């Protein structure tokens, strides 16, 4: 009995990598595909590739309960679209619908009753749109708002117009936030009860010239915090969120720190990309592009030349103040980690390396918040640059 318990304990320790298959999907610009990947032990295998997400697949949103995957086509040439796919148990996808949409959708979130709404941020076209996706075979535009700027922001070459870069549902499911990199705002929308309709509230002010790109919430006991990762200043801004029954939620800025934590700095040309809060709400993870500050072992074991890597930075959330303390700067698995995501248990991080045509899966210690070795990797994308930009677990 004791021996069984011991060996079971040992086994679960040894099997930090999953024993049963885990499915992932990655989007990539340069081969214009959604790639289905199957992670088994230390192997990450390509299951299939799909081209119904148009010319520049850029983002994925999963409705796990309904086995539906939404893919945004950024459409650099202007032909943008949203594709809904049925996800099958073996990782393959079946196209349900393709809806042409306004140019440059870059991020989306499900919201509303039974996740029947999809909120989308459009970057180039300065627009927030929502779509009715209750009927997955008949996606339809529901509502939209396009913004303008009276004058360029402090970083004129990137802030000559509003650039919405993310759509984030708050933990109550009643509000959607859209960080606007061009306008230094986080736009805020109140979702109507029992509907996918929304009304706009007063936006949250971001630090001038910071260029908020992506955002993430953390719920720590009774405290709610909201963090934005700011692409232009390479900083993280923290807000304390206070809800009230009578009025709009309040977002009070509590700090702004380097993307590498308080006192940290980044080289010229760095461009912060993705922010995620760990499932246990104890850590913030951010990816940072164009630093090439770290290295990883060559995937060819016979080759001792190490490969360059940008970092994924892990920071610990003070559960009372919301402040962030640096835990680790770990290799993201290559260059230009535009998008990454965690599995539900928080034990794995999947990272898309846009400049290396590579997707890696990295192990993560849930307790310390530290990333460990690269568990598995796969080639995704084809050609020079602009390869895989996002990867998501089927969880
Ligand atoms: C906004 O929605 C209306 C229909 O409700 C549509 O005619 C218009 O083209 C949309 N504008 C954008 C920028 O998507
Ligand atoms: C070793 O790896 C480096 C970096 O990828 C590469 O440039 C070099 O050609 C490799 N050497 C051999 C012998 O394969």
UniProtKB/TrEMBL annotation:
Keyword terms, alphabetized: Signal
Leader peptide range in chain numbering: 1-21
Entry protein name: 6-phosphogluconolactonase
InterPro entries membership: Cycloisomerase_2, Haem_d1_sf, Lactonase_7-beta_prop, WD40/YVTN_repeat-like_dom_sf
GO molecular function, one term: 6-phosphogluconolactonase activity
SUPFAM superfamilies in UniProt: C-terminal (heme d1) domain of cytochrome cd1-nitrite reductase
Source species taxonomy: Eukaryota, Fungi, Dikarya, Ascomycota, Pezizomycotina
Domain of life: Eukaryota
Stated family: Belongs to the cycloisomerase 2 family.
């Amino acid at each position: 009995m004791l021996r069984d318990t011991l060996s079971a304990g040992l086994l679960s320790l040894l099997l930090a990598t999953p024993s049963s298959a885990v499915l992932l999907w990655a989007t990539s610009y340069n081969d214009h595909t959604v790639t289905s990947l199957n992670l088994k032990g230390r192997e990450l295998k390509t299951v299939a590739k799909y081209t119904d997400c148009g010319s520049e697949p850029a983002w994925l949103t999963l409705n796990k309960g309904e086995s539906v995957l939404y893919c945004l086509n950024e459409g650099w040439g202007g032909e943008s679209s949203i594709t809904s796919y049925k996800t099958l148990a073996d990782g393959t996808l079946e196209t349900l619908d393709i809806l042409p949409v306004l140019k440059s959708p870059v991020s989306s979130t499900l919201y509303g009753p039974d996740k029947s709404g999809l909120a989308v941020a459009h970057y180039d076209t300065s627009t927030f749109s929502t779509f009715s996706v209750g009927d997955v075979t008949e996606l339809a535009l529901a509502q939209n708002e396009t913004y303008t700027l009276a004058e360029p922001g402090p970083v004129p070459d990137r802030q000559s117009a509003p650039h919405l870069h993310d759509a984030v549902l708050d933990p109550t499911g009643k509000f959607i936030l859209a960080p606007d990199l061009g306008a230094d705002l986080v736009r805020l929308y109140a979702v109507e009860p029992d509907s996918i309709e929304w009304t706009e509230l007063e936006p949250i002010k971001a630090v001038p010239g910071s260029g908020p790109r992506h955002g993430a919430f953390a719920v720590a006991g009774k405290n709610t915090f909201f963090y934005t990762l700011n692409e232009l200043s390479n900083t993280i801004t923290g807000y304390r969120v206070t809800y009230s029954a009578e009025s709009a939620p309040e977002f009070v800025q509590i700090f702004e720190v380097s993307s590498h934590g308080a006192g940290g700095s980044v080289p010229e040309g760095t461009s912060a990309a993705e922010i995620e809060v760990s499932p246990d709400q104890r850590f913030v993870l951010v990816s940072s592009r164009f630093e090439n500050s770290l290295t990883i072992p060559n995937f060819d074991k016979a080759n001792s030349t190490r490969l360059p890597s940008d970092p994924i930075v892990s920071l610990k959330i003070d559960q009372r103040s919301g402040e962030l303390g640096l835990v680790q700067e770990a290799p993201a698995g290559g260059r230009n980690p535009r998008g990454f995501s965690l599995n539900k248990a928080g034990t794995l991080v999947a990272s898309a390396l846009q400049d290396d045509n590579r997707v890696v899966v990295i192990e993560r210690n849930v307790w310390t918040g530290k990333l460990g070795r690269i568990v598995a990797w796969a080639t995704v994308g084809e050609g020079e640059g602009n390869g895989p930009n996002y990867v998501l677990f089927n969880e």
